[in-house]
Amino acid sequence: MPKIRAIVFDCYSTLIDIWTNERKEEIFHYLSLYLGYYGARIDARGLRVALDAEREQYPKTKEEAYPEIDLEVLFKNILKKEGLDNPFLVESCCKLFRAISRERFQLFPDSLPVLEEMKKNGYPLAVVSDAQKVFSPEEGEILGISHYFKCVLLSSYFGFRKPDPRLFNIVCTLLNVPTTEAVYIGNDPETDVKGAQGVGMKAILLDREKKVRNPEPKPDFYATDLWQAWEWIKANK
Which of 103, 133, 162 is a domain's end point? Predict the structure, then answer.
């Protein structure tokens, strides 16, 4: 097996322990109140219906096997109908939507120490995540992990999401390593393992809650925490 020279991570549920509820009534209540200060007349129910409609329609505009939505575009379309063509409002609505929807937001206990060990050992690190560019970079900064990564690829920058092979090929190009010499660590067999192995990368399935049985496709290594993943990587350096 080729030596592993670079390590790529999924973000949420792999490094960041997060739980969101995007159907909470408070989200749309407070967003509608906020927009009222700028002249919008849309109420909480209308805002929820409008966002659902935009979510449904947006992927249909993309000729992609695995289309990704862009939350900023969704809110931009909604606000335009309210007569508000304001980039600041679009961004602030997205961030308020995210902040209010979060129920849990923290690092897993092993995330920082393992990242530090990998960095000390000279591995270039990167992230490929299905995430929104309007708030995900700031979340990495808030939790203090952004500086560990040479590059961070977010699906919303591209309009397509994992397991699209382009994301995995791009990150290896940016890291200047062949795909066969990189490993991807993620928590989803269908998106993470399939996507990484599809371009020749090794794939570690991180199953923290030990809920995945007989994963398909089969990962190169199965781990229940990042320390186990790190030990396997060191054994294949």
Answer: 103
